[in-house]
Design brief:
The protein has 386 residues and is an alpha/beta fold.
């Protein structure tokens, strides 16, 4: 069913028309991305859809009926929620009050504060961040944390259409992934990495290295990402499962925040608590920059290290084979290219060649390859810069 149709939308500003006669159609269960140069009118089109700007040309149809969006309140009443690049949050208010702002649960004219707090707590847990409590002052949160509150606010309105203006500018990719996990009808096809298999492959590689070196009771360390995220939990579970199958255990373990700064700090703590190590797995190659800085600062080189995600930086270290880094487990860097190719097939109503299915699958999990010195040349072209 067609949810939204914008036809011939134009907006005139002094000396310029932007956007100029834009058409956009969105069906239920679809995700669209607007692409264009700065000044092309992307944000203006979003503001027209949000009711913040009135178009000078064109018409808008919502669920089959021609409509006007005279204000943001009118758009919200129809079920259109917008998350702006400049967040419309009140920094001095707590998370709960921001989440329900404008549609506060009330009884007999009084706001039901407990209901608001319960709703905010539940939504932040769905987004993978239960540590952001309902009483936290929004202005004291990081930019990524504030974006998550804005996401929770949109979900709280039970919107039929969520419009996001550069939603990935502040939060990490993992947090954006969580948004789509809790809105399963927001896409026709989901493509992502195999978090559990990343952990399994890292564990199996380390186990093989330990057995080849006749190390019977190795000390295996782990630098995880954010523990509250399902993807971190899946990676750690796979790592533990593979290690246990080999007869080994994991420890010591620290949790970082997918940043180089946190990676350096937490790895320094791990190295200080473990004067000896045989192996170390770092979940993320970006935070791995800090992990390597801590290792170099401590002058440690007695163990082997496995990275995670597939950065070009780690691949170069693997190829040089002059330090502790011996492998990285991929979080396929080519997923975006594959997604574009699959989107083209969807648009052409085609399936995947050599697969019996007539249609593109609903979800695709990319393989988590293990990149080592023996095969690194095959993967250098897809490595990303950390």
């Amino acid at each position: 069913m067609t949810l939204l149709r914008m036809t011939g939308i134009g907006k005139v500003f002094p000396g310029v028309r932007t956007p100029d006669r834009v058409d956009l159609e969105v069906a239920e269960g679809e995700v669209h991305r607007l692409l264009g140069q700065n000044g092309a009118g992307k944000s203006t089109l979003i503001k027209v859809l949000a009711g913040a700007h009135q178009p000078d040309d064109g018409e808008i149809t919502w669920r089959g009926a021609k409509t006007a969006l005279p204000s943001p309140v009118a758009a919200l009443r129809l079920g259109i929620a917008t998350m702006y690049q400049e967040l419309d949050l009140v920094p001095d208010l707590p998370v709960a009050e921001n989440v329900v702002l404008g549609h506060e649960p009330a009884r007999f004219g009084f706001t039901r504060r407990r209901a608001a707090r319960d709703l905010a707590r539940a939504l932040m847990a769905r987004l993978g961040h239960p540590e952001i409590g309902p009483d936290r002052e929004v202005g004291r949160l990081s930019a990524a944390g504030q974006q998550l509150v804005s996401m929770a606010r949109a979900l709280a309105r039970d919107a039929r259409l969520i419009v996001m203006d550069e939603p990935t500018a502040a939060p990490a990719a993992d947090e954006v992934d969580n948004l789509f996990r809790v809105t399963p009808l927001a896409y026709r096809l989901w493509i992502g990495g195999d978090n559990y298999r990343r952990g399994v492959n890292a564990g199996e590689y380390i186990a093989a290295r330990m057995k080849a070196g006749n190390i019977a009771d190795p000390i295996i360390g782990e630098v995880a990402g954010i523990d509250s995220l399902p993807l971190t939990q899946e990676r750690s579970q796979g790592f533990r499962d593979a290690s246990q199958r080999a007869g080994f255990s994991v420890g010591p373990r620290v949790s970082a925040s997918f940043t180089s700064e946190s990676g350096e700090q937490q790895t320094a703590n791990l190295l200080q608590s473990a004067p000896e190590l045989d192996a170390l797995w770092d979940h993320d190659d970006d935070q791995g920059i800090g992990v390597m800085a801590a290792i170099d600062s401590a002058g440690r080189e007695e163990f082997v290290m496995v990275g995670g995600a597939g950065s070009r930086n780690m691949m170069d270290l693997i190829k040089a084979d002059s330090g502790v880094v011996k492998a990285t487990v991929l979080y396929s860097p080519s997923m975006a290219s594959s997604a574009i190719a699959l989107a083209r097939l969807l648009g052409q109503a085609k399936g995947i060649g050599d697969v019996a299915e007539h249609d593109i699958p609903a979800s695709i999990t990319t393989y988590s390859a293990v990149v080592t010195k023996e095969n690194v040349d095959q993967y250098l072209d897809v490595g990303f810069d950390s």
